[in-house]
Design brief:
The protein has about 350 residues and is of the alpha/beta class. The chain has two domains: about 40-125, Copper amine oxidase-like, N-terminal domain (Copper Amine Oxidase, Chain A, domain 1, 2-Layer Sandwich); about 140-345, Zn-dependent exopeptidases (Aminopeptidase). Helix content is about 40%, strand content about 20%. The protein is built from ten helices and 16 strands. A hairpin with a 2-residue loop joins strand 5 and strand 6 (about 95-100). Helix 4 packs across helix 7 (about 260-280). The radius of gyration is 20 Å and the shape is globular. The protein starts with a helix and ends with a helix.
Amino acid sequence: MLQKERAFDIINRKLIIYVMNRVGLLILIFQLIVAPLLGSPVRVGRISDNLSLNDLARRFNLKVIWLEKDKKVLLKNAQNSLSFEVNKRDFELNDTTVYLGKPVCHIPGSLVISKKDFEKTIKPLLSLDSFTPPPKLHRIVIDPGHGGKDVGAISKQLRMYEKDLTLDIARRLKKLLEEKGYNVLMTRNFDKNIDCEDRCKWANQEKADLLVSIHINSVSQSLSREIQGVESYILTPESQPSTGFKTLTLADKIKNIGNAYDTWNAVLGYDVQNSLHKRTNAQDRGLKRMRLRVLKDLRCPGILVECGFMSHPVEGRLLMSPDYKQKLADAISQGISAYHRHLARPIR
């Protein structure tokens, strides 16, 4: 679960907002509260900071199809389909949801995205040939979330602990990856409590080429029947807000060690999330961004995977099933294989 990570991020943001001057605070209140109530579209920043989807379409030979004039657009060719909607902070690539740093905005005749979203998310997913040589992929570290006294999420009704599920799925994934010829290590192979930073440090010490952290989600009982599905997290790029946050803080402007792998994180994240929701038929909650402690100082590409909600009455019981846990492990394994293929063939 990411509750602790979200809490740290929220506390940090509150401290910074507290010292903002009054003018900045009034502007923030207007943008986040007053403007949405008035139905105002998200304001477009400087033209130089944005890229029109018409230009994106020309660059990648995509046909522009308006699904709803000035609101929803589809960019399509024989290989890819990208759908965007004004004011939304995500888009769909081949039926898999990918979150952006800023919302899609409207200008006369086109929708626009930020250039940073193009460089850090869309360009890597459509073509890697203009980036530096890809990293190697031989040694993979699997990180079963939680452990020991840190049990993670709990389902009293199903008598499940997150720490047990993550270890079970991780062991299954390890076997599948070893069968494919990878050298696979695990941050823990038994019920042991390890700090998030120590997991990251250990992966660096072992010179990992990739880290996959396995987790299970949960929500309060009042939301348990509504929320389900799988989602994946990669490190937020420098000077972008994490998914679920709208404004930048000083912490967002710090370049973490793991940001050196932003390009490859995007490809890894998409390939795993795409495989995960399509192979399990779970609801797609998308590829998201967060400055997670297990990813921030990582010296290789990394991803945190949330394999479902134990709090959901149906999905929770599925997570108890050995067959479904094997299906989850296989989906993650297939996603890693797709990522490896993209390292060898940079054009999607």
